[in-house]
Each structure stands twice: as structure tokens, then as C-alpha cells.
Amino acid sequence: xxxxxxSILTLVLVGAVAAIVLYLAARKFRVFEDPRVAEVEAALxxxxxxxxxxxGCHGFAVACVEAESLEHLVCTVGGLATQERVGQILGKxxxxxxxxxxxxxxxxxxxxxxxxxxxxxxxxxxxxHNLYGGDTGCSWGCLGLGDCxxxxxxxxxxxxxxxxxxxxxxxxxxxxxxCVKACPRSIIELRKRGxxxxxxxxxCVNKDEGEAxxxxxxxxxxxxxxxxxxxxxxxITLTNxxxxxxxxxxxxxxxxxxxxxxxxxxxxNFPERKTIDxxx
Amino acid sequence: MGGIHPKGHKLSxxxxxxxxxxxxxVVIPLGHYLGxxxxxxxxxxxxxxxxxxxxxxxxxxxxxxxxSVSGVVAKIDGHVDASGYKVPSVFIDVEGDEWLETIDKTxxxxxxxxxxxxxxxxxxxxxxxxxxxxxxxxxxVKLTPPPGKKAEVLIINGVECEPYLTCxxxxxxxxxxxxLVGVSILMKAIGVHEAIIGIENNKxxxxxxxHKLAIEFDGISVMALQVQYPQGGEKQLIDAxxxxxxxxxxxxxxxxxxxxxVATAFAIYEAVQKNKPLFERxxxxxxxxMTHHGNYRARIGTPLAHxxxxxxxxxxxxxxxxxxxxxxxxxxxxxxxxxxKGTSGVLFIPTLESERKNxxxxxxxxxxxxxxxxxxxxxxxxxxxxxxxxxEMESDRILDCIECGCCSYSCPSNRPLLDYIxxxxxSVSKIVRARLVRKN
Lengths: 280, 440
Fold this sequence. Notes:
- The structure holds two protein chains of two kinds.
- By secondary structure, chain A is of the alpha+beta class.
- Chain A has helices at residues 2-28, 35-43, 56-66, 79-90, 125-131, 147-151, 178-182, 210-216, 226-230, 256-259, 275-279; strands at 100-104, 157-160, 165-168, 188-192, 199-202, 236-239, 242-245, 265-268.
- Chain A folds into two domains: 35-90, 3-methyladenine DNA Glycosylase II, Chain A, domain 3, CATH 1.10.15; 100-279, Alpha-Beta Plaits.
- Chain B contains 14 helices and 17 strands.
- In chain B, the strands form four sheets. A six-stranded mixed sheet of chain B has the order 1-14-13-17-15-16. In chain B, strands 2-8-7-4 form a four-stranded antiparallel sheet, with no helix packed on it.
- Chain B is of the alpha/beta class.
- In chain B, helix 3 packs parallel to helix 5 (204-214), helix 4 (176-190) crosses helix 7 and helix 11 packs across helix 14 (417-439).
- Among the domains of chain B are: 117-274, 3-Layer(aba) Sandwich (Rossmann fold); 367-439, no CATH class.
- Chain B is globular and about 65 Å long.
- Classes of the chains: A alpha+beta, B alpha/beta.
């Protein structure tokens, strides 16, 4: 009996002393943190994706509090609402930005881009890319091994088993840039979402010359320049046999897509084209 | 340290070197495995002769490229190389076989070399000679030691430790005297009085042959080495022959050694004594399912398909076609790839042997650690690479890896160790290069 009481007393005493020491130490070594950091952090999406360029949401919150203006601090994942909330908390002008979305610029599905050999190595794009040109005749296009899918934290990218190309779920994509960084061939690009999610882009990154590309893939950009000629706004540039549509200049007039001989220009979320449009 | 003992399979060891026929069109790559691509000095429509300069070296670590056939330049365009990526190449339509008049085509061995060391290095550089063991590092760079370093011994690599390949073996048997003259020229160029030719014990005939010939040459000795892969690696060969270890991140010159391949020595002989630039090499065409093995002297730029055709075509049971040996070679995606200066052979692997086996978990058996000739820990490097731990990989000496493949070969769980280590090596060297640029 005595022993039980004694042990309880000893433990209580040790606990009390330790608690006092810890309390004093915590007081003495307390690190002051701006209370607004916690507030800002609570307003952020808390996914720690790193898309903003900081190590997670806490790092971004600290940067927001310390910065003089929010101009270069963007949380694309939270979107405009989050941005405004952060501005309110800090009493700074909220940053506005045009929402973007990931766009996969390769149309080389199994049908249009025949396989020329079989890859049986590690199922990782970057390893295959370092090793060789890929299992098709195009050494620029998508390898289809899913590094982007693995990098996406928002379940927004999936490899379509029938085409072996990644498909972006627009409603889930937060344009955090993770897939862009993961792709060893720089196929994925963040582009403006556009009004009603309407977008026009060149669905290819191949910089080879026309003749060689046609053998490898029937929907590749061959660098003929027809689209650039037809564009009235100077939005299309042709460098290294590859057309690029500048989203800042593009007015979504839809003149370029019908002239492309290989259908390499993609129009997304547009209403069905009227026959008369195609004639002109 | 480390190493493995794969079966030799030297099926074509007794097949004499044959002349490969000229293809209708050659594609001569201007790019090199290491260093800057050369600049083309011919344009479409130009008529060229065998041995004429067509690509000018671009900077110090680069090499000249010469026409390997006579004919008309068709175009200068990208062409896929063994990696499946396009490299700038010169396409020449073959017409006849007209050599430059300056090239000495007589078969007599010319022993006397009157050039001084500087002139020899200049000649080698002009002739576009690169290391023919496979890495194709420009030879003149190795022969110009940085200030403060002095070569003491020349080591000649006749090891040919890769299974199946026999091109160096045949060359030693058939061109032994020329190789020895080449070695003595090299000795003169770097100012050393001792040269050791290292040959593995599975080539007893070559050892005996060169040993007999070497008596006439001062300072050249032949050393028989035990059979082990990757003994043909520069650092491994230095250790095996003179017992010195090249420090991590160092060069052979740090221990006073210069290493050259036997085929390079032969090319140097031809360049210096016969005025013949490097435009052809010996390649081995072999494989278990192959009926006509052979060693062929092929012009650089000949499509591999053309040489293979001469050797009886692609055998029926073929799972993979590899350019080079089975350990370090590259699986080809296309036989239109041209013979490059570093192509040592074409190997046909039967379907059953070519398949990758299922990967299983690491059982920490340390076979890879035992096998690694550079003293690294491959299992750890692979895990780090999977997790993108580049800083840790750098301090674990990833850049020392020679990509010999002993780790993947020895793994009982069939783990793709080398694939991941290569990825790590590329990433770490990118970081290191970026750091150097920032510093300067």
C-alpha cells in the first residue's frame, strides 16, 4: 500500500517539476510569430502543393505577411476568392490574375502515331526520356508513362488507356504547375482558361522538319505556316518548324484551325462549327 | 574491387575481319557522344573523296569528321542515332571509291616516325581520332595534359571485357605490328618510356601474338589479366595493371597514367604513318541465334542494316538488337542507325533472354554493393533517386558511377538499379554544372 502511494506521489512530483521547467522554458524561448500568418494560412487551401514557389502553404503565408505588396504572390489553387481573402486579412490590395489550366500539347494517340518499338523498362517518363527517343517515331511527343499523373495532387490528370495520352479534368485542375515540371519533354503548358473555357492551341511540340514528322505522326505540326498567314492578329509565330499560338494575342476567331493540313490545332469547348465557316 | 563474371560468348573470335561492302548511301553523324557537335564544311551537291574533311571540330573537346566514301553530298539533316534522338548528319550518295591522293594505301608496315610530339598530337587531332573503346572521347585532349600534370606510363586497353564483342581481339591478331607502332607513337607523343598492353586471359592467342611482337619494341610489355567485367573501364584497368587508384572525381593523369584502346592505337598508326583519317572501324556482328557471326571493317556512316544484311540478315529469333555489348550497349529501335566512331558491334539477343523479369523488393543482400567496381551503394542510390534526393546522392559519390551495369546484373530481385542511378547521375550533373556556371 505504502509503495503504491509513494510511487504516485513521486510521479506527480516529477511531473509537476517537469511541467514548471517546460513552462518557464517555453516562456523564455518563445518565438514571436505574427498572428496574421496563422490567419492567412487558415484561408489557404492547405494542400502544400508548392505551386506558388514556396515550401507549402505556411511558407506562402509568411511571404504574404512579410511582403509589401501581394503583386507577385499567387495561389492559383485557391483562386481569386482566396486571393481576396488574403488581401482582406492583411489590408493589402488583392492580386488579380487570369485563371489558367494545364494543357497537354500532344495529339499522338496510338492510331495517328504508330508504335515503332516496344519499351519494357521502368515505367517512368523521365527515365525513358533519358534513355532513348521513345517507342514511336516522334522523339518529342508524349511517352505516355504517366509522370504527370503521378505528380498531380488533385486527381486532375489521367492517362487515357485508349490513346495513351494524359487527359486534364478541367474542373479539378488548379494550375499548380506540378505536371509542367514533371514532364521531361515540356509538353504540358499552363494556358489561360479563356471565356467559357474556350481555348485554341497547337497540339504538338515536334520541332523536326515536315517530311520526317509525317512518317512518325499524322497529326503533328509540320511547320507549314498556313495558320500564321491566316491569323489577322499576329498571334501565331513559327519557330523551329513549330507554330505557337500566343494566348495573350489570340482572339479565339477560329480562323486558324480549319486551314491546318494535319488538324494539329485544337479548339476546345467551342460550339459546333457551322458549315459556312469551314468554306471560308 | 567489385566486378562480375558474365559468360564470354565470344562466338566470333575466330572469324577474320572482312571488308564490309559499300552501301548506296552513308549517313555520317556530326555529333559525338561527348563534346560539341562538329560544324559541317560541305554543302549539298559537293563532290567529296574518301578522307576529305566534312566536319570541323567545334572547340577543344570535339573532333573532326571525314568523308568515309566518295560521292555527292545529298543533304545535311538530322538522323536518328543509337539513342533514338536525331543528331546532325551528312548524307553522302556513294559513287565509286576514290580516296584522297595523300592517303598511303600500301599494306607495308611503316615503323619509323620522324614527327615530334607536338606534330603527332596535331596530326591525331586533324585526323579526327576519338577513343574507339566506346566513349569516343577526343584522343588529342587526353594527350595534352593540363599544366602541372605529367604522364608516367601509357596503358593500352586490349581487355575487351564485354561479352560477345571480338573486334579488338581480331584487330590485335591481324594488325598486331601496326598497333605496336601506334603505341610507340603514342609513347613519343606523351613522353613516356613505358607502355603496358592489358589483355584478358580469355584471349591467350592475342597475348602470345603481341608478346612475341613486342620484343622488338622498347618499353612495351604485354600483361595478361584475369577475366572480369568491367576491367576495360579506364580506372579499373589502371588498378589492374599498375595498382594505382584514381581518386574520386579525378583523372587517370592524377596517378600518372594515360589509357588508350588498342583500336585507337591502330587508328593513330594509320593517321600518323599512312596519313589516313579515321573513317572506318571494325564492328562485330554476333548473337546466339545468328548463323553468320563476323567481324567487319565498315565505313563510318554505313547503315547497320547494310552490314547486318551482309552477315546473313536479322535472325528469326530476335528479341532485342543491341548496338555495342550486352552490358553497356544500347537497345536499338531502328536498324537504319549508322555505324558511328564508337559502334563496336551489333548483338542480336533471342526473345527469351531479352525480356526484363519482374521487379521485386530489395532484400538487402548487398550483391550490388559487392559487385560495384567503384565502391558505391547502388541499392541506396536507387532509393534516393526514386525520391529525388539529389543532394544526398551527390555526397554518396553518384558522379563516380561508370554505368557498367554490374549492379543490375547482380540483383536477384531484378531491380532496375542502373536506370534510376543514371537518372540521378543526369540530375546531379545538371545541378553541379549550374553551380559551376553561377560561380564563374
